[in-house]
Design brief:
about 325 residues; alpha+beta; seven-stranded mixed β-sheet; 9 strands; about 60% helix
């Protein structure tokens, strides 16, 4: 037979109950409000007219942290841009404080650097696909930009400040794009070509589906799937159509720009077209052999669009792991 709880135990249970916690919160709420009002009044006495700017800065920082908490590379680029703008801003304060000769002219030039400071980070952050680290790109570009300001700070401005500003900005952006192009060339160099089309071989799409062979050229793509004799033809056609649609989504191409192809193991198969419709996607599926992809390439229309980004995005897709056979 269970006895009654002890007075101390009963007191502890009541103290840690949800209702007791809610009561304590309600009792503390007026004290928190009064403390916040006193703190704001004290900050107004200290800062005066600068208080709204401080509150706006705190609010903007909170919003930035909220938006960028899952985007570390973008947050790093923003931090690099802020530091890049802070360097000439602090330099301006030091020059004005020391009353250096020619300080107004140098400050005017440094103001231009403050205004263009976010451009290298913005360029590094918006390059797609991201083949190199955007934060490193932004740091190098910002460093090149700030180097252009050093002659004006050390030797004074003699009228060449705007020219140095434009030149350093061009060099900064060119350095970022050069690193991107060099990484792209290294990524695409080992890829073979088939009649001018880039052959990316087997790839795994973001949704987990596999492409047996992926070719990109003339603004189009060919997504090849392997056929199995045990699978019904209709199911094979629908699977090839869905794979082509997933390929178009992954590469940023229009659905009509990706041709679904089914590769067979027949020695001399004929090139045939079949219509596939799953209620959402309607496509013409080509069935042919591996040695007749040249014919499929000749049938593809030529589209006037840049395909470099699609090729780079496809090259970043992972290759399926080779299954090891054990004897």
């Amino acid at each position: 037979m269970k006895g009654k709880p002890l007075p101390m135990k009963q007191t502890l249970l009541q103290a840690f109950s949800p209702s007791a916690s809610a009561d304590r919160t309600r009792r503390r709420r007026p004290a928190v409000v009064i403390g916040a009002v006193v703190l704001m009044w004290w900050m107004y006495l200290v800062l005066g007219a600068n208080l709204p700017w401080l509150l706006g800065l705190i609010a903007a920082s909170a919003v930035a942290v909220r938006l960028l908490r899952h985007h570390r590379q973008t947050a790093a680029c923003v931090a690099v841009a802020v530091m890049t703008a802070a360097v000439p801003a602090v330099t301006c304060v030091i020059l004005i404080d020391r009353s250096a000769s020619g300080a107004p002219d140098v400050v005017a030039v440094l103001t231009g650097y403050i205004l263009v400071a976010p451009i290298p980070a913005l360029v590094a952050c918006t390059l797609r696909p991201a083949l190199v680290n955007p934060a490193i790109n932004a740091l190098l570009g910002s460093g090149a930009l700030l180097l252009g300001a050093s002659p004006s700070v050390l030797l004074g401005d003699h009228g060449e400040g705007p020219v140095l500003l434009v030149a350093s900005l061009v060099v900064s952006v060119a350095l970022i794009r050069h690193r991107q192009r060099r990484a792209a060339a290294a990524l695409l160099a080992p890829l073979p070509l088939v009649n001018g089309w880039t052959d990316l071989g087997r790839r795994v799409l973001p949704d987990g589906s596999r492409v047996e062979q992926l070719l990109i050229g003339n603004g189009n793509a060919i997504a090849c799937s392997a056929a199995s004799s045990s699978t019904p033809p209709n199911r094979v056609f629908l699977a090839a159509t869905r794979t082509a649609a997933a390929t178009a989504t992954a590469l940023g191409l229009a659905g009509r720009s990706v041709q679904p192809v089914i590769l067979t193991d027949m020695k001399s198969p004929e090139l045939r077209r079949y219509s596939a419709n799953d209620g959402e996607i309607v496509a013409s599926v080509i069935v042919t052999g591996r040695g007749q992809l040249d014919e499929v390439i000749r049938l593809a229309p030529r589209r006037l669009r840049d395909q470099r980004r699609a090729v780079l995005t496809a090259a970043l897709l992972p290759c399926p792991a080779v299954e090891a056979t054990t004897r």
